[in-house]
Amino acid sequence: MMKRLRIILTSFSILLMASLACNLDKIISDSEPGELETSVAATLDAFSATLTQEAPLPTGTPPTPIEIPTGTQHPTVTPEPTSTFTPPPEGLSLNCDGTYQRVRLVDGGASGKTLFVDHWTGAAWEEVWRVEGGDPMNQQIEDTAGPYLFGDCQYMVIVPIRFSGSGAILELKIYAWNGSEMVEGYAHDGVHGDWQKLGDMITFEESIYLYDEPNCCPCNRQYLEHSWDGTDFVQTGSLISPTYEGDPPDYCQP
């Protein structure tokens, strides 16, 4: 296109030069002395103005831009949201309801042991319940205290407290979380007491005195069984077994 434009301009210049030559001949032949200089100057100015005029640009349909391929398009896949919630440290959902609690047994030395239950607020632990063992010279929370599973998904807090003395009485209590506080669901105590958890059943063993026998030497031991039915602890068995073999000693007879 630029080559064609240069050809047009060159042809146009040649025609103007030829026209100028003819005009100069006519001016020279027709002009009087003194008028020749003025006529030639006017003709050159007109020629210069013609050359400096901007040639019109060619018209037509503009070229179509070239499309550069950007690659194969793939559908956008949005990932499934994942849970960002992380259970708090030491957290345990006592009722498996999405809330979290924490059970702690703290040894206070001379002031005794204390069992705490804390509730997770979403930002921090908040104490909601405690049991104090008291003076360890008189009574003490045993190390077996803590949460135990009952049923498919319910944790209860078992608190055994041993009282000192010749009787060595054991007090056993079981508490459940109701969503805002701990409520007592089981309680029993006995001399020389001991306990076991077998599945959803609590077995409590204790000494019983039927014949005014000495405290050191009970003639019988009693076994009580209580099972958790999802709502309450229901007694499901009992047994009294002698502590001796063969004939009973004199103090074990009526």
Key descriptive features of the protein:
single chain, 254 residues, alpha+beta, five-stranded antiparallel beta sheet, four-stranded antiparallel beta sheet, 2 helices, 18% helix, 35% strand
Major sheet: size, sense and barrel closure? Answer: 5 strands, antiparallel
Instruction: Write down the Rg.
Output: 55 Å
Please bin the fraction of helical residues: 10-25%
Number of strands: 12
Low-confidence stretches: 68-85
Distance between the termini: 136 Å
Quaternary status of these chains? single chain
H-E string: HHEEEEEEEEEEEE
User: What proportion of the residues form beta strands (DSSP E)?
Assistant: 35-45%
Mean of the pLDDT scores?
79
> What structural class do helix, strand and pairing data support?
alpha+beta
State the helix count: 2
Q: What would the principal axes of the Cα set say about the shape?
A: elongated
Description:
This protein is α+β, with helices and mostly antiparallel strands and 254 residues long. The chain is built from two helices and twelve strands. It has helices at residues 2-30, 36-52; strands at 101-107, 113-120, 125-132, 139-141, 146-150, 154-163, 170-177, 182-190, 194-198, 201-208, 220-228, 233-242. α1 runs antiparallel to α2 (36-52).
